[in-house]
Amino acid sequence: ATLAVDVEMLRTMSGGEYHTCGLTSSGHAYCWGLNSEGELGDGTTTFSLTPVAVSGGHTFVALELGQTHSCGVTINGHAHCWGRNWESQLGDGTTTNRSVPVTVSGGLAFVTVSLGVAHSCGVTTDGHAYCWGANWYGQLGDGTTTNRSTPVAVSGGLTFNTVSSGRYHSCGLTSTGSAYCWGYNVAGQLGDGTTTDRLTPVAVSGGVTFAAVSAGGGHSCGLTSSGDAYCWGYNKYGQLSDGTTTDRSTPAPVLGGLALDAVSLGRHHSCGVTSSGSAYCWGRNFEGQLGDGTTTSRSTPVAVLGGLGFTALGLGGFHTCGVTSSGDAYCWGENMVGQLGDGTTSSSYIPVRVSFP
Questions:
Q1: CA 298, CA 119: separation in Å to the nearest integer?
Q2: pLDDT by residue (tens digit) across 61-120?
Q3: Whose CA is closest to 269, among 328, 336, 217?
Q4: Is 92:81 a contact under the CB 8 Å cutoff?
């Protein structure tokens, strides 16, 4: 039987490059793909071509992936993480890898978490943002470049609804729809009109009021309440969808005239879902992660083939996954270690169904 998946299977920006996770309607977590650092959470370091249950018996309401680590939030707001921990991205006060979930220190009650390459961030029930792990470029937002093995508050006193962690930067959205970003900014991914790294949050330029914001590998995107998408930052593969491959340090409108309900970012590609469930992707496509049956990169949106109606998308480094309205899971793109979950290591340029037990 196919397990019903009721939330994003994967939302990783640059993270989850070679593994994927899903959450069932009952809050049970399953992961598949690369497991060299314990990122599947099943107590082993053996990679899996199909989903395996995350150990610990936790009931999760949210699940997010980094490059080689994973975190979930339980119904009581506790954050648990597993996988690589060399940079303290698990937040348990150590640098020891974990192949089963460990509790993030500090006793904070989280609503959401989001993971980058080697850092993690979360928003608490009172709207405060905390980050932990690698801080090489200021991606923790605490005004330093010091790695942290337990959560530290993001500076500035802002109240966030959500925070999204990209590869080496982070972005947050306030209750008034203002977007702020911090960390690495070599390609303008902070959206403040510069390419200067920031150790604390800076406002995204342009005065756009966003309903959602997402950070990717070296780019960021925001979505308005009317479904208009804007992106900024690194654009070598067209991942900003402005019809060019020119980097942008301020938000540029996504072309294509689509009204999107959600936007998700991978390392070098982006995807969105319309209200009808149609999925569109753009950017790098060397591995087939756009799902249009080709390996041609696109600087404007192309439809994902297969006629499936998606309720959520989650993007990895070089692959994409989606959950349909019936709870079925599909993935496409690179599959060299089984990150598509179909029981093979064959890449696919169109969606293939995940083989749940």
A1: 29
A2: 999 999 999 999 999 999 999 999 999 999 999 999 999 999 999 999 999 999 999 999
A3: 217
A4: yes
Residue 283, classified by CB atoms within 10 Å of its CB into exposed (0-12), middle (13-18) or buried (19+), is buried
What Rg do the C-alpha atoms of the chain give, in angstroms?
18
> What pLDDT, on the 0 to 100 scale, is given for residue 6?
36
DSSP 299: E
Quickly list DSSP for 124-182: ETTS-EEEEE--TTSTT-SSS---EEEEEEPTT---EEEEEE-SSEEEEEETTS-EEEE
Q: Which amino acid is at 330?
A: Y
Using CA of residue 280, residue 281, residue 282, residue 288, what is the dihedral sign?
Answer: negative
Beta bridge partners of 62: 73
Q: What is the rounded distance in angstroms from the CA atom of residue 89 to the CA atom of residue 133?
A: 4
**pTM score, whole prediction:** 0.95
Give how far Cα 177 sits from Cα of 18, 123, 294, 348, Å: 33, 15, 36, 37
pLDDT at 312: 87
Res 24: pLDDT? 85
Q: What are phi and psi of 226, to 5 degrees?
A: -90, 0
For residues 241 and 299, the answer to whether their CB atoms sit within 8 Å is yes
Distance CA 127, CA 117 (A): 24
**Is residue 4's pLDDT more than 50?**
no
Taking a C-beta distance cutoff of 8 angstroms, is the pair 154, 131 a contact? yes
Average pLDDT, the chain: 93
Q: What is the DSSP string of 188-199?
A: STT-SSS---EE
At a CB cut-off of 8 Å and minimum separation 6, what does 163 contact? Answer: 112, 114, 121, 122, 123, 129, 131, 154, 170, 171, 172, 173
Name the pLDDT band for 158 (thresholds 50, 70, 90): very high
